[in-house]
Amino acid sequence: HPEMTTTAIAEMVGKSRETVRDHFFRVYEEVVEKKVVKNNTHVYLADAQVKPNIDLSYLHHQGMFLADKQPEVIICAGDFADMPSLSDWDKGKKSAEGRRVKADIDAAIEGMEILLQPMWDLQAKQHKDGEEVYAPRMVLTLGNHCQRLSRFAENNAAFDGFLGIENLRYEEFGWEVIPFLQPIMIDGVAYCHYFTNPYTGKPLSGSAANMLNKIGTSFVQGHKQTLDVATRFLATTGQQQWGIINGAGYPHYEEYKGMHNHHYRGISVLHNVVDGSFDPMFVSLDWLKAKYGETK
Fold first, then answer.
1. Could you give the CA distance from residue 159 to residue 149 in angstroms, rounded to a whole number?
2. What does the pLDDT read at residue 26?
3. Could you read off the pLDDT of 50-87 as tens digits, one per residue?
4. Buried b or exposed e, range 177-194, using 16+ CB within 10 angstroms
5. Average pLDDT over residues 238-262
6. Cα–Cα distance between 59 and 48 in angstroms, integer?
7. Distances 95 to 51, 80, 88, 105, 281 between C-alpha atoms, Å
8. Residue 1 pLDDT more than 60?
9. Which of 62, 63, 70 is nearest to 42 (CA)?
10. Can you give the C-alpha Rg of the chain in angstroms?
11. How far apart are CA 255 and CA 249, in angstroms?
């Protein structure tokens, strides 16, 4: 009965007052613990477009941010490796001379090591100090540039089993690799390099608001060199849905974009992710550079 005292309950069940009181305290603590929602943070690393002969310090800055922030989930948008040697855009042109697949792969592996080194250093220190070792979930959604390796092997059967995504060693680095154009739901948020029309297979076009309406759930994608954000509230569920397009996590200019190289460059942070609702924060490469220095 809600109005009974601990003394009365103790007499009724034949236990001491202290035993009854301790029992209620344990139950109360268990209930409170279950009601507390642990902060669940995702960090979305936009396309890195790593290739030979570029400054890779921007990856060190992002890696330092990850080690400081320690998000529960890290999502790599895909197109971490640029793979310009397998590009069809300028194939046969003078600009393509001198490119080598091995150099592209080596650059991507070096870039991944630079990105993850701050986290490895943190984990080594935590292990040495006897602390709980940070172990985030790491998810990589393959992009069209990474896919160039598989496409080349598909079109040149002699390279099957010799050349492919495996050469980039993503899984060895600890990433959960999601096939190209296959969305993955994490805490109610859909992630994919880019989303496609289910009837035509072509990329969904238009603004983030238009895509949010078509996809129907919170989503984050890369691919497009922009930062476009949309949100809507669902009164029926109380869910605040978000759509984020963030496709440039690199500082260098791309020749094919010409005068259109002026666009947002940075990463996205999703705080308090629960059932597709979250509090977004956007961190530019300029801020990361100022925070973590210019050297790797």
1. 10
2. 65
3. 999 999 999 999 999 999 999 999 999 999 999 999 97
4. bbebbebeebbebbbbbb
5. 86
6. 8
7. 14, 21, 12, 19, 38
8. no
9. 70
10. 24
11. 16
